[in-house]
Amino acid sequence: MKIAIGTRNKAKTAAIVNVVKKHFEDVSFEQFSVGSNVSEQPFSNEETRQGAINRALNTLKVANADLNFGLEGGVYEVDGLMYCCNWGAVALQDGTVLSCAGAQFVLPEEIAIELRAGKELGPVMDEYTKEKETRHHSGAIGVFTAGLINRTEMFEHIVKLLIGQYLCYKENIL
């Protein structure tokens, strides 16, 4: 089974590889840098979902793999609080797209201020933590859950949902 990953982000890639290997045998993985065709910092659930779908479809176009994954992180506001949201999509060779959302958690106001000013979460988190490439490791979720869940684990949950939906789709349940 050929698996295409529409990112070179280490946390997202590890999530896909970790989950797929548990559910399928004889798989090969290939990574692609594809666009999300949305803002660098998606600012709603809808835009974040669309970014994941676009990444999956763009990956399908270049790889035509059995499963073509797109994962996207974004933010949105409710009642004056800014939340981080995460979406995933998988495009099948026949053009079918399955999507789902994962963990959503509140960001501190000092982070929200920076995002409202037009900055992207990844670099803001690097500045906040005084670390480099936070988005490839713990991510905001790791920082703001006291390390109880990291970005790879968060995306693993989304990939599990996608694989489960795919298995149901194959059985004509979806």
List key phrases describing it.
174 residues, globular, manganese, YjjX_NTPase, magnesium, nucleotide-binding
Which SSEs are present, and which pair or pack?
Layout: E1 2-5, H1 10-23, E2 28-31, H2 45-63, E3 67-78, E4 81-92, E5 97-101, E6 105-106, H3 109-116, H4 121-129, H5 139-143, H6 151-170
Parallel strand pairs: 1-2, 1-3
Antiparallel strand pairs: 3-4, 4-5, 4-6
Note poorly predicted spans. none
How big is the Rg? 16 Å
Q: Strand percentage, roughly? A: 15-25%
> CATH architecture, please?
Alpha-Beta Complex
Helix content: 40-55%
What is the CA-CA span between the terminal residues? 21 Å
Tally of domains:
1
**Average residue pLDDT:** 96
Give the overall shape. Answer: globular
The first-level CATH class name: Alpha Beta
Structural class: alpha/beta
Total number of beta strands: 6
CATH names the topology as: Maf protein
Number of helices: 6
Largest sheet: 6 strands, mixed
Query: What string gives the helices and strands in order?
Result: EHEHEEEEHHHH
Pfam families: NTPase_I-T
Catalytic activity: XTP + H2O = XDP + phosphate + H(+); ITP + H2O = IDP + phosphate + H(+)
Domain Non-canonical purine NTP phosphatase/PRRC1: 6-161
Keywords: Hydrolase, Magnesium, Manganese, Metal-binding, Nucleotide metabolism, Nucleotide-binding
Structure explained in plain terms:
With 174 residues, the protein is α/β, with parallel strands linked by helices. The protein has a single domain (2-170), classed as Alpha-Beta Complex (Maf protein). It has helices at 10-23, 45-63, 109-116, 121-129, 139-143, 151-170, and strands spanning 2-5, 28-31, 67-78, 81-92, 97-101, 105-106. Strands 1, 2, 3, 4, 5 and 6 form a 6-stranded mixed β-sheet that branches. Helix 1 links the parallel strand 1 (2-5) and strand 2 (28-31). The model has no long low-confidence stretch (mean pLDDT 96). Its EC number is 3.6.1.73. GO terms for molecular function: ITPase activity; metal ion binding; nucleotide binding.
